Sequence to fold (724 residues):
Amino acid sequence: MGMTSAQKSGFGATLWDWLTTVDHKKIGILYLAAGAFFFLLGGLEAVIIRIQLISPENDFISAGLYNEMITMHGTTMIFFAATPLLFGLMNYIMPLQIGARDVAFPFLNSLGFWLFLFGGIMLNISWFTGGAPDAGWTNYAPLSIQSPGHGVDYYVMGLQLSGAGTLMSGINFIVTIVLMRAPGMTYMRMPLFTWTTFVTSILVLFAFPALTVGLFLMMFDRMFGSAFFDAALGGNAVIWQHLFWIFGHPEVYILILPAFGVFSEILPTFAKKRLFGYTAMVFATFLIAFLGFMVWAHHMFTVGLGAVANSIFAVATMAIAVPTGIKIFNWLFTLWGGSIKINSAMLWSLAFIPSFTIGGMTGVMLASSVADYQYHDTYFVVGHFHYVIVGGVVFALLAAMHYWWPKMFGRYLHEGMGQLAFWTFFIGFHLTFFIQHFLGLMGMPRRYWVFLENQGLDTGNWISTLGAFFMTFGVIVFVINMIYTTIKGKKAPGDAWGTGRTLEWATASPPIHFNFKQMPLVRGLDPLWIEKMEGNEKMTPAEPVDEIHMPNGSILPLIMTIGFFIASLGFIYQAGNSYWLIAVYLGMAIGLICMLIRSLKDDHGYHIPKEEVEREDD
Amino acid sequence: MPDKMSTRKINSFQKQKNKQEMQKMVVSFALMIFFTLVAFALVALEIPSTYVIPLLLILAVVQVGFQFFYFMHLKDKGHEVPAQIIYGGIFVTVLVALTFTVITWW
Fold:
């Protein structure tokens, strides 16, 4: 098993290695690659939406296809681009930051990835089988119940698959952080990205079951004739909205907290200062997570929950501005008086602060339940959430790519292309979404296929589409940058930026497959920085060089996932044709047999002998 | 992972503790079965539901408590982090149930 890096293996062997891998670094890269693919797909859908809205009463795409486009854009971006890209980063970076050799449950990690990927594939198959889901990414009942064809069924099964994967990854991260920290790595010495991974995973653990329940109810309603959401038979459509947002609101914090973590790593590194107010940052992270669970009904102010309910949720929502404000000021104070180095990673981080603050400000405006009656379902909302999600999460992802690319792939992304991508995307982003606030205030509703001429909406929409082209250009430059870097990028040393503070910079770039030859001894916050300040070239080891225990790879997660994938297809089509039940039974059998094999077959992993560990230079 | 149980010699103190632990487990297990029997009996005796429903809920909460504290070791030392996370989960669940009761079903 022990792969020495010098050996070159054939294509088949490499493919097998990636399909069976349980290495957190490789799974991280798989997450990033798949997430990037879905990001480009979602981006393409976004561009099609903007082209449709470039001029009044445009007919670039039909109304039905437009509905599919907006639904798939939202669903793809949230579930299959933003979430997996962040999970990829967490997978790769978090174990390195706490000085672990892998996550707590490597097998589960691999299963989580495959479930996510096949969920995404399932959702997108719907394009080719008679129409994608078209009830919006929120999939509100009763619209979703009445949507003809199988589009919404694909939505339900695709999200159910990927949701299960996300849930197990979340549990995995929690256990990893609780149990596998290196000697000396106390909770209050953990880097902020690890902290946000931890809190995010707790959010995943509590939020995703609500989605799972909602999706099951939706599945029964659509495929097995139940009536949970059918008012005519005594059901209640509002229950879907509650369940969706009990999940959905924490989900936006699941996305933004790791983004906060990324910036809390990048700013200290390039300001050459320790993070200002570390304790307050940790506290604020927890406070956001706590408050994030009691604000979901602010998405439902116009449902008619009543004045008291609306007021409670409005006040709770506004309260979130406080811990977020704490974070914004801490980043500013981190920069204050720092020896600041500007590069692509830093540009994205600096641009994030004002962009996200604008999104936060419109958030407080929307939180006011009375004013929300005016904003609800207009482009103002579209402007708001793109400011927080693009200005927060996407900026964080691009910053993180520049920052950790040398760690993950051993080469620096090209700086010139990085800055070109930044400026075009940044300008395009503000062009696209700033004007949308005003379009919304002027009364343009969201999710409409066309708008009419001479209602004051023409210029705004034209500008918005122009911005989308700028963003597209930026993304294309970034893709070219990735390809260029892979071929002839500049090689990076372990401490790629020279001012790395956290443990991942103490490993090689890319790290050896067991990460650390010897467990490092952590002597404080920013452990590598402490060692460097004392003139040590590397971490003080906490153990002698010895043999290392590592997990075996396995193909079972992939086969198990394929089983559940087949069963999901069976569930979708059995409603019309009972022969499809064969697929349900077959798929379930494959999945369950794999689980049985996994349970009965003891797999204790393998040991890398001491001699081989000694040969590796770290 | 260092594991306390893996040390070969279990001293008498540890033995004593394990014995007490086992006693507690058996007692709480017996109580849980007793509660379940009581619950079934209450329904079988056809007492008015105004009394039965609150009683059943109380019994259920006590059983969940036994489950968490005795069988899932929430009361033990070294289980603080899982305990905190489970309290968090209980908080979220209660909040959701409360909201549904108050603004959707009431």
Remarks:
- The helical segments of chain B are 12-44, 49-71, 80-105.
- Chain B has two domains: 16-72, 76-106.
